[in-house]
Amino acid sequence: MYKTNKGFEYEKIAQRYLSASGYRILAVNFFCRFGEIDIIAKKNEYLIFIEVKGRKNISAGYPREYVTKSKVKKLLLTVKYYMMVNNYADMNCRFDVLEVIYDAKKINHIKNAIEMEGF
User: Fold this and answer.
1) Strand arrangement of the beta sheet that strand 35-43 belongs to
2) CA pair distance 33, 12, nearest whole angstrom
3) Domain range spanning residue 81?
4) CATH number, domain containing residue 57
5) Contact 98, 108 (CB under 8 A)
6) What is this structure's pTM?
7) Which of 45, 110, 33 is nearest to 77 (CA)?
8) Rounded alpha-carbon distances, angstroms, from residue 110 to 2, 3, 4, 38
9) What are 86-100's pLDDT values in tens digits?
């Protein structure tokens, strides 16, 4: 995997995992002026915004550790925008982080990883 394709590969792994786990993927790489959301999915009564983080191994820390406060701020603005333009104001939602540790062939799905005030 070339460096520029690693994120894409991790997102493909995440999509396969989510689909196999009963999630219906609504959007991938949703982008607006506020930022980007890797995957938007639905399961049961929830609209789920998923940040995918992957690393070859954990020698430099767990992938989830790279979800910074500034990244969270951008993600929350992007979530609000997505919900507004898609008429999801009354939908229950949550924000998950899905980390892929490539060499270990491990996926950690961290549900409700970020508190989304006002939702």
Assistant:
1) 24-32, 35-43, 46-55, 92-101, 106-110
2) 24
3) 3-110
4) 3.40.1350.10
5) yes
6) 0.89
7) 33
8) 27, 25, 25, 15
9) 998 888 999 999 999
